[in-house]
Amino acid sequence: MSLDQDRLDEVLARVDAQLPDSLDRLMDLLRIPSISTDPAFAGDCNRAADWLVDELTAIGFEASKRPTPKHPMVVAHSEGTGPHLLFYGHYDVQPVDPLNLWDRDPFDPQLEDTPAGKVIRGRGSADDKGQLMTFVEACRAWKAVTGTLPGRLTIFFEGEEESGSPSLVPFMKENAEELKADIALICDTGMFGDTPAIVTQLRGLLGQEVILTGADKDLHSGSFGGIAINPIRVLADIIAGLHDENGRITLPGFYDGVPELSDEMRAQWQRLAFDSADFLGQVGLSVPAGETDRTPLEMIWSRPTCEVNGISGGYEGAGFKTVLPSKASAKISFRLVGTQDPNKIETAFQDYVRSRLPADVKVEFKDHSASPASQVEISNPAFEKARRALSDEWEIPAAYIGAGGSIPIAGYFQNILHTDPMLIGFGKDDDQIHSPNEKYDLESYHKGIRSWVRILSALT
Amino acid sequence: MSLDQDRLDEVLARVDAQLPDSLDRLMDLLRIPSISTDPAFAGDCNRAADWLVDELTAIGFEASKRPTPKHPMVVAHSEGTGPHLLFYGHYDVQPVDPLNLWDRDPFDPQLEDTPAGKVIRGRGSADDKGQLMTFVEACRAWKAVTGTLPGRLTIFFEGEEESGSPSLVPFMKENAEELKADIALICDTGMFGDTPAIVTQLRGLLGQEVILTGADKDLHSGSFGGIAINPIRVLADIIAGLHDENGRITLPGFYDGVPELSDEMRAQWQRLAFDSADFLGQVGLSVPAGETDRTPLEMIWSRPTCEVNGISGGYEGAGFKTVLPSKASAKISFRLVGTQDPNKIETAFQDYVRSRLPADVKVEFKDHSASPASQVEISNPAFEKARRALSDEWEIPAAYIGAGGSIPIAGYFQNILHTDPMLIGFGKDDDQIHSPNEKYDLESYHKGIRSWVRILSALT
Ligand SMILES: [Zn+2]
Ligand SMILES: [Zn+2]
């Protein structure tokens, strides 16, 4: 239920007072190396799920670990009146390589002083353990002050988000009645610079691994070079041919379903005064790559892309080895927008690759994920309430924005549960998620918890 | 000194009788993992050099280990009359990865029965430990029967051949007086099918590592994909542009100094009846790649090539990671012929790479080797004597052939020591040198030892 101003201030004060303890709890969770893509860490994923069940139970939720063929889900409920709110986060994290680029053990997190303020350093601090804990800690403070949890909540934590979410759709379908809600709060996104933001436009993702095989063994390039086909060269041709000279993707039909930005949205985004030099400068770049006729913000939020996420083949060790390799492989992903159909694009991509194969080269494809883009409908009045609550906490008007990353769950909430997804998160551009030295600002954590208190009061 | 027929037969009989012991000694040497390119095995390289010094000393050579900044040389002398013969081999071996493709521990060698006969299986069995030991064992049998070593010999073993021979030229220059000989016997090549062969045409090698850097850290392809430059894509463009649609290399001036095959050599090579379907079939291929207007044998022996020996970048582990990588790198090598100048081609290559770099991408080059091709002058009568000795042993007329691989030492003997190099080896096409499951036929080892006995008798 909504809190009056005094009660709200009391809960917020409680958040401030418990911050050191909230931080300790997050550190405990960060110490669990729950890397979902690597089977070696399956036990740790399970341990992270157990840890969350225990925490949620301690606060008063009815919490349980729910098995899947891979890593378990965590689902927790609280009784109450008012609208049913679903909260989603993921407890799994990205791999940590290259480990040598980390300044500390990725799973020995620490609060660090930096010129820009205090940061929580460690794998998963921003993506997504720090973020999901903002909600848990908001509920804890609420309960401590009011004696009850904030209304009718369902918490839903996934452990496979960073490895393609293989169990998510089946689990949502099987448990649709239990998970269906009036609104789904998803905390896995960021602010726009220093502006708090609700993401209403999300790109989809298609991931494909391509493995080429030429000779049936590695050859000596002295004996065979020039006469035996080299699969690295074939792969390079394939990758080089995926874009034209204007940065457009060449697959036939690729741009079917890609909408032009509405004039209204274009005007709104222009007001955000996105500084691409600044955005690129933080990572050592200066010139926007990509489509030559699009603005940087369009490219990140509303245009489809094709990237090579990894490539491998032949001798990669120290020194030189004049091998002519048998195999070469690449991990390639497409960001999708509008109504682009991931299945059609997968077919177009595989056809394209096959059309470029010379004699004697075989191809194997591995599918890694396929989710369409999603466009959130913001007519639900909960959006405007949440936007105002965010604006109050950060003392800056919150914005509706797009996001470059894919959060397939947003689309699943819409299509499977018919529940509007509301994406609110407190990550910063320089959090280095998926990279070495990932961090989460202490401010993101602290004001994130406070933000959820305000939003919960506004929505319940 | 030359042996008369009876004495020669005695020495050959001694080779046959001592074969089991000769094999045991080779196995000892093969058990030392002397991988020269990987600093972790520096101690093993040193151990292999010590082992050779001990063996040569035991036979009666004046042998010593000679330090270099990296791995030691082994030099041994025997006193005698007649022409001064220099024998060269290398005791270092290639790395063994991918280890999982080996059917046994690469450094636990074994004699195996195969449908095609007995083979010695293990890293270095063919390249080059088995080959250099054919000469050592020939000297041992000669000494056992005649009481002396076969004349005025210098043995010269290198330990850096598989890692670009950084110490070789300085060492040869410093010790030119000691190493200068009437002819240099080099045992690091193969037969032509079942035909014993002397290689008179050798390609040179230029090795270049290219490391591209875009952003100063790995990025998330959701946040930065489309606007941040991807160095894997840049590298793919660079590699794709190195060849035109006819398989020719596009670097300006690349074909300067590439000679056309003489009619005489073309005719001789045609007589060899090279079966490219058979050659490619042994490694699971069927169609010659490469220049569309050249015969397969030309492409392997007398045409320059450009190959990618390794490529690396982004996430290469199991599963998928939507990283937009900071770095991508490739190891690229050129095989050179005629009077192609490795330094000019290095410059042309680096200029080409730089010309293809978009804004914000930096390049670093690492040089790995640069040696011109060499053409051996066979007018020295020693060549015809050796060819006849080989023909006697194998009961097939021996041939003068080309070789696709680079053996820079052949050029160095010519240019630094003014000594004619004679390349004779007993490797087979299916030895899988530089690859998993390397082997050396027991017949190559046995008849290789016998061949040297005959050649030594013919030349001394
Ligand atoms: Zn995430
Ligand atoms: Zn060799």
Automatic annotation (TrEMBL), chains A, B:
Location of the Peptidase M20 dimerisation domain: 210-360
Coiled-coil portions: none
Keywords: Hydrolase, Metal-binding, Protease
NCBIfam families: PRK09104.1 (NF006579)
InterPro entries found in the cross-reference section: Cyt/Met_Dipeptidase (IPR051458), Peptidase_M20 (IPR002933), Peptidase_M20_dimer (IPR011650)
Molecular-function GO term, any one: metal ion binding
Name under which the protein is recorded: Peptidase M20 dimerisation domain-containing protein
Any one biological process term the GO annotation gives: proteolysis
Keyword Protease attributed: yes
